[in-house]
Request: fold
Amino acid sequence: MRYINELRDGEQVNGIYFCKVKNTLKTKMGKSYYALTLQDKTGVVDAKIWELNNGIEHFEAMDYINVIGSVTMYQGSIQLNVSRVRKAGEGEYDMKDFMPTSERDINEMAAELKGYIGSIENTYLKTLLTKIFLDDKEFFKAFTLHSAAKSMHHGFVGGLMEHTLAVTKICDFLAKQYAMLNRDLVISGALLHDIGKVSELSAFPSNDYTDDGQLLGHIYMGTAKVNDVAKEIAGFPAKLLTEVSHCILSHHGKLEYGSPKKPSLAEAIAINFADDCDAKLEALKELFDSNPTMPAYSKMLDNVVRRTEGIK
Amino acid sequence: MRYINELRDGEQVNGIYFCKVKNTLKTKMGKSYYALTLQDKTGVVDAKIWELNNGIEHFEAMDYINVIGSVTMYQGSIQLNVSRVRKAGEGEYDMKDFMPTSERDINEMAAELKGYIGSIENTYLKTLLTKIFLDDKEFFKAFTLHSAAKSMHHGFVGGLMEHTLAVTKICDFLAKQYAMLNRDLVISGALLHDIGKVSELSAFPSNDYTDDGQLLGHIYMGTAKVNDVAKEIAGFPAKLLTEVSHCILSHHGKLEYGSPKKPSLAEAIAINFADDCDAKLEALKELFDSNPTMPAYSKMLDNVVRRTEGIK
Amino acid sequence: MRYINELRDGEQVNGIYFCKVKNTLKTKMGKSYYALTLQDKTGVVDAKIWELNNGIEHFEAMDYINVIGSVTMYQGSIQLNVSRVRKAGEGEYDMKDFMPTSERDINEMAAELKGYIGSIENTYLKTLLTKIFLDDKEFFKAFTLHSAAKSMHHGFVGGLMEHTLAVTKICDFLAKQYAMLNRDLVISGALLHDIGKVSELSAFPSNDYTDDGQLLGHIYMGTAKVNDVAKEIAGFPAKLLTEVSHCILSHHGKLEYGSPKKPSLAEAIAINFADDCDAKLEALKELFDSNPTMPAYSKMLDNVVRRTEGIK
Amino acid sequence: MRYINELRDGEQVNGIYFCKVKNTLKTKMGKSYYALTLQDKTGVVDAKIWELNNGIEHFEAMDYINVIGSVTMYQGSIQLNVSRVRKAGEGEYDMKDFMPTSERDINEMAAELKGYIGSIENTYLKTLLTKIFLDDKEFFKAFTLHSAAKSMHHGFVGGLMEHTLAVTKICDFLAKQYAMLNRDLVISGALLHDIGKVSELSAFPSNDYTDDGQLLGHIYMGTAKVNDVAKEIAGFPAKLLTEVSHCILSHHGKLEYGSPKKPSLAEAIAINFADDCDAKLEALKELFDSNPTMPAYSKMLDNVVRRTEGIK
Amino acid sequence: MRYINELRDGEQVNGIYFCKVKNTLKTKMGKSYYALTLQDKTGVVDAKIWELNNGIEHFEAMDYINVIGSVTMYQGSIQLNVSRVRKAGEGEYDMKDFMPTSERDINEMAAELKGYIGSIENTYLKTLLTKIFLDDKEFFKAFTLHSAAKSMHHGFVGGLMEHTLAVTKICDFLAKQYAMLNRDLVISGALLHDIGKVSELSAFPSNDYTDDGQLLGHIYMGTAKVNDVAKEIAGFPAKLLTEVSHCILSHHGKLEYGSPKKPSLAEAIAINFADDCDAKLEALKELFDSNPTMPAYSKMLDNVVRRTEGIK
Amino acid sequence: MRYINELRDGEQVNGIYFCKVKNTLKTKMGKSYYALTLQDKTGVVDAKIWELNNGIEHFEAMDYINVIGSVTMYQGSIQLNVSRVRKAGEGEYDMKDFMPTSERDINEMAAELKGYIGSIENTYLKTLLTKIFLDDKEFFKAFTLHSAAKSMHHGFVGGLMEHTLAVTKICDFLAKQYAMLNRDLVISGALLHDIGKVSELSAFPSNDYTDDGQLLGHIYMGTAKVNDVAKEIAGFPAKLLTEVSHCILSHHGKLEYGSPKKPSLAEAIAINFADDCDAKLEALKELFDSNPTMPAYSKMLDNVVRRTEGIK
Reply:
């Protein structure tokens, strides 16, 4: 497979790409053509199909397509002139080659997550986590492949799990440093804090807000899911359920950020810090990785930021 | 029964009052005495028990007690000197004589609420409302006696239902004036918007925030209750459940007021207006009723307000 | 008359349109041509006059012009190629065919407004309203044809009266529901609250901010007009004039929205709610009417909104 | 006259004071007595009348009274024990001895104000100022004795004129430094900017918000007064009236400070700066004058402030 | 030594306490007496000296005094009636018995701090830290005994070092978790971020804002101190000095919290998080330690908070 | 020299311009060409170099270049077709012909500044100002040519000194009007308040934020410079240095505008007013000078503003 960031002017291309956008436009002469945006995990490229003949089989946006064509330059950017297209079959491609994907191995992350569940001592919390993450295979698969956001930070395959683990790791550290933190509660809250995102955002390749996401939000949906599962666990202590629910509800830290309650428990405060810290440092990392020149504006931090240079 | 606002200097008193506060203090001489705050629906009065002898039977704050004593003046205010106390039995008093209570008849309000449920055409919403308000007698009794707030507005027995009906009535009017509003949805949302307050505040006489109220809040708890009940209704349309849930979640109108989502549906906007309008006008009414002199400061409106005088 | 939203590629056109924009441009060859925006009540269309010969009589932007030409497609949109133009005479057209116009009949609305004036019991307020709306024919005609805003909501012919009536109707309802509201005052305040907009915005077709509008605003100008007229009414009670003035001054509800005083009277609070409620629901209606696809962003509500779909 | 700040423990007093507060209280024994607050320009003192006999003639709060009594200490403060009281006649006292009063001579300030009016070149503005300040003797007397605020800054007799002149002087300076400023407009706006305070606050001795002040505010009332007077001046240019009105309406600088329009003219911006600068520096001066120890909290500046000490 | 929290009604006392407040008051009879507030590390107690005879030697507030007297109850609280006082000599007491003091051992913390300095690899930063913390013995002693705040959090002897180490430890953890963080810079910035507090607050026992603290603040003073010392280090790279200075200047995270620059470097963001996290969790811990009953209001978090109870 | 605002279609040009931007682009045919932005003090003009032959000597953006070419029109704007280019030598041009420059004479302004220094009575402040402005010739030259901002206001050669003098002049006036202001301190603070801008912004022609400017800011850098110089002055009183430092640190008036401390001294308040007043009035002046049509939007004032017209 020839990755998009390796394409060079004048090359011939024959490979599979994910078709993110497909518009039907007209030339000044009134002739129809397609303007596409093709994507793989290394980036996106504009493509044009000028001749809509038999070589162009039916396809839609969000399809994986096999493309034959040539690379040209247009206004300083690479562009594909496509002569043949056919939809790719399911076995022909691996989604992870076409979507931005976590640098961490997904199986390794899943194992780390299971390790955290295994470390919980409280029976009820351990059962709750087991039922949500381990017993429900479909949910867990969706969780492992989901992004943590449409953009902003961790907007890639595996991003939700990567973010969840980073937050949990910070909480684990804080539980060691601050004796008042109950480790079981803070680890459980960290693991659960963003599970509502599996419903708030659709899965890849679309990775966009769902209707439920817009009307209810991941904070409500995640808390509700935890409560639904806890009801199936005989004797789950009411106060403990309230506390773990509070950790999820309040994890954005402030009402104006969408939490209906501010954090009132030490564990909830720790989770809010860990979440905010990982989101911002990861956003910074992604900005540094994608911007060769510094300084650059970070929308998430609403500030002009820059790589450190004083120590080589 | 002799109401507190009728007590006069020099009178003898023998009657039942609600003991809201009971403190054990010491005189300068080191002798213990009780300082009480007694309450009925007309107000509160300070009371002192200087002699802790056999005539003073055991009681606690939040008990209804039969008090014998005399009325005196102290620093310009009425005060009770109590010589005998005994706890009142359950049948001796009616809570509504001792707590601030709605001016509207509770049965009449309950009938009005049932009338609104009867007017809903959509089967699923009608079933949902029936199960919540009519089938669950215990919940409905609690709902009819609850206050809508600890203070601020409708802080009296029956206040939650009175507020709910006022909001529903405004929504009913708006549904007639604005054709785009779906009457079934806006009426259902209005009836349900504050049901979480039954869990957020404890019942009278204490009428104070519960632990769940502080950690989860009525917005989350009300929405969760609606979803729990809807799950018992076969075929309840998912989109409809999302929409009625959104109406509850968003009814505070802004994130900084504790709604995790701003209103995105016309019906949710209407409910937010009706809720805000009734809360503020009722708060104003209560201020006017309790303040003979104008202008007066309204905490809820954060403004100095006054009765209109230009037209007699 | 052929409406703009009915024009089809290839048609010949001969009709009157309102010329909203007229620019003189040059082709690459250096030849002058006109680029116009033509408007009727159904929308706008770009038009070009490539040959500036005798067939093109003198006209300016904001003129009504009779246009002869042909309809073509350019970059997916309809466009007019105009060969002849002449200014239309006053009797040849009716402004309401060319401007966005209220869906309600203007005479019917005027009658409704007079009905509200007729229902006022207080002599002074009734005289005040009569002098402003009924005795001053010129003002009343302007009022009936004005928009309520440049954009945002009710930005069409008759929009100011439509909005005024909607606000008054809500206030009438609230006066029934809340006994503390003085109906005469709240209805008068509602009818008068936006009369300053007749001076703040110029009349159609331009419908733009005037100099006085920018420097003084409709809140001040409306209040000042009421005071000027009230001075002509012998014995108008000073306190009543202050109260009705306060209702106008405070109707934006908050200082940061341009009211120099927050509402301090129950009637002023009711008017503020009614104004805000109607403005937002009408803005939503206009958004739904003009956006086939949902969700859509509402600038006025600063939120992504959507039509309700759960109940068909 | 013996000033309050000169009273010493043990002295006998016989003099006239302004009675700011008069409360009728009861001793523990049930005997009525008066608790007064007496005031002169040097401060206030508590006074008690224990024996309500014939020597205590009838008087009310806000009366000037001749008091005979003795000075005692109570809880570290001076207090008056009063044995005889009679109301003082109008000719017996001069209000300026009893109220906080400007350090500047009132006649001298009036002359300075007239000088500014004389320096205006534009006929219409000069006529406007003459009619408001010079022709209306009653208004001018009220203006010269008014305070600029209930508290905050310039809360003393003559304070409104002192503040008006200071603002005008700063504007006069700015008109010299910035050529784009029209001196006639900026001086007129400065002289007129706070004339509404004569209606917003009652005159001394009460110096408190009037009903009109609370419901309409000095910004609206001042602008309305200028417009009423301008209507009497034949040919007053409409645009000029709009501009001077804008200077008054916008002089608080921001909507949230109660101006319905932000300053849009250079002169309006200059007046806003001058007003804010003088208010804050005067508030600081009054704080320094009344607080021997530093640092001290300034409510107006919302900051802990201090006298400069680095240069003796 | 008898600690204040062990004093019981009726006991005789003979011991050394820190005199925090000394007021000279008068009884109703006009006799002078002293009202003191005495303090040790376990709390404060009111004390009265009714007889100012020879047994009461001269002392001032902020002195350590040997007190002989008896314990009494007054209005439900312990109080000391003092009969003899003399100032204690320097060797008679240890400040740490009288002031709230860190639970951690100060020498142990000093060793931990030195360990962090030893772990820095960059020569310039290591020299900088060595000169500031190790070479300047006087500064280091002050640093080790200082509080981190007047109240809010870590307001005790050793609090500044305890807070500094906690922040550094979090940063050390983050440097391991996020590869983009330069450990030398983030550790140096963490160690230095609050050194300006040694000048902003006076040392114990007064522990109050200094004049320089109020006018310049610890953010400026700390940065300036770092720059002054760096100038003494030959060849200190300018860019590195800018970066470490930026970490100190920006550590409050937002302009409105007093940082003149928002964090623009990853290390500065990490320090801001660590500082905020430790300050808030420590404030919570102190609240939990001092409030037996929950929930309680935390001023720093502006929220009602509570100990976790769901897991025993 | 032919100024850019005098170039006319069809002319031949042979002159020196400042090359602000130089991009290498390609035509559709794949041929490289240069797209330049040339600048002199009267404005900017686009230029194209289609033939990159020997006549085009090497140059970079930010170079002064001698250009030979012809003036053409493109899309309604003047454009230069350049046939020959060579870099200009240092003696061939005067920077002030190519950059926007103060309307005031720079030597005259320097003299005025020296006059203010001469008027200072306090020896230490006078020495401080002398060492900073007069003894350090290099700094003073930079100061005299610097702008006060990248855009917003005074963004031209000499702008920093012009602004500094305007602020100082206002402070001088205020020191006369308000006796509590110490003239030496307020004048010194005014002269020094923006000296950090010499380091925050690079010199012309680039006039852009430096790395130190972004990471440290002119408020910190200016204060630090003053402290560095003061340390060289034997006996400089510590309190005086704190006060003058405070005047610089606090001159933005609010934390959210980047001052780490709000003004706490009368002189600091005066400097903040003078700075804000001059910045805003100058921004308005620049807007009026560059916008023939009114009203216009001012970004700095966040308002639509307009020239005054009521008085011709």
User: Anything to note?
Assistant: The CA atoms of residues 208 and 217 of chain C lie 13 Å apart.
